[in-house]
Write the structure tokens for this entry.
Amino acid sequence: WDVTSTKQFTLAPRTLEVLRDLPQPVEAIAFFDKDSQEQAAPLKLADDMLHEFEVRSDKFSYRIVDPDVEPNTARQYGVTGPGQVAFINQDSNETSLAIAAQVVDFDPQTGTRFFEANQRLEQAFVTPLLVVTSDEEKDVAFLVGHGERGIGLEAGEGGYSQAAAALLEEGYKVSELDLQRQKLVKRGSQPEEQEGQTPTEVSPALIVVANPRRDLIGEEVTALKEYLMSGGRMLLLLEQNTPESFRQFIGSWGVSLSDGTVVDTSEFVRPDVRTPLISQHNPSLDLAHGLDRTYYPGAAPLVSVSGTLPTVTIGGERYSTRVVTLEEDQFGRYVIAVGAEGQEAPIINVQGIGRTSANSWLIKDPLRTEPDPNVDTKGPFSLGVIVDGIVPLGEEISTEASADVQKASLIVFGDADFASNRDFSGVSNQDIFVNSVNQLTGDVSLINIRPKLLSQREFLATPDEFDVVRFTSWFLLPTLMAIGGVIAYWRRR
């Protein structure tokens, strides 16, 4: 029995699924010296984890090899020293390496090496399993060229290097997409490959747009629309400074980014009421599985487009469009539909991922945090939405295309800071980002809370919860102790 709060001694559900569904037999070779005292602790951790993998799958096996005793075996799999584990697909002989332990210090006088075990050992072993058994390594491309957040280490607190590293751990290939230098081809196409060069034609499984600060130019809008209309996937993380071209882009898919920021007077990360906490996520979405609270510094809500909507042309026939709100859905679901009332055919479906509390407000004045009911709009609000659609507003699909249409999928957040290096590890922020990628790329089986090897004893209290803790500490517990003392005294008289 594992009674730890984060189940830190239990394999994550996603790991169990990967092991259960292994399509080919895989052997792991752990390179350690069994007689080395310095390697004893990390070897035991790796041995325990690999044994657990072996118990869970009849297609997985492992052995331990000393790289000094069998140097040819180590060279064969590209191993450069102890602490590495080679995962080999026994059908294709494809190999992927994992780091189980590495040298963190060296004593030149005694020649002693000090090893430290990988604290994320389970993820380190699952990634090569996915690599050697997958037919396709999915490419997640971060859009660049418009002032977006960087994915390199030099990007600092506001960058996305941790987000990129988390995707690499999930088995994705991470790259950058520059639409001025690369041609974005339709999804499902086979781009031309060029050895040793940045490919000029790309068709990634997913495009991530992280806080653009300059407009799309030239044919970039057309390229992104055509990519989506061929069944493409996009994850957009936007801020208040989002340029008009990106606002129009999401508007063509039925979503509008509000002006102003959300102030939540009951659920927020203390002391900033402009950092709302979301504790309720849409249970009908796979990406919400296992999520705890998430928070979004300086977020803007996402609402439906309004006013007179552009028409769409399907199979040569023009249709007017309108927003149909599903009032019974507490997460703000709505559809953009064509056709007569009562016989509408949805072309775009929008669902909220999570909602702020009823005590949240949209305030447009950046200098004010106190809500004014006469000026400000009261919540709850959606800070993230998932969009599925067959054709964007104002566009056209032919008769041939409409017969075999491929649905586009987008996830849009009204905040980019929650996935930045500064806030990525907070509560479930990492999970909701990686889960969003999993959902968009079709890797639903990976959507589970990531294994937490170290419990995070973090207490994020709303003002009401903080008052409960304070007053029960001041009055309830002393009162119970006093009552217990009186009872004990009375019984002993």
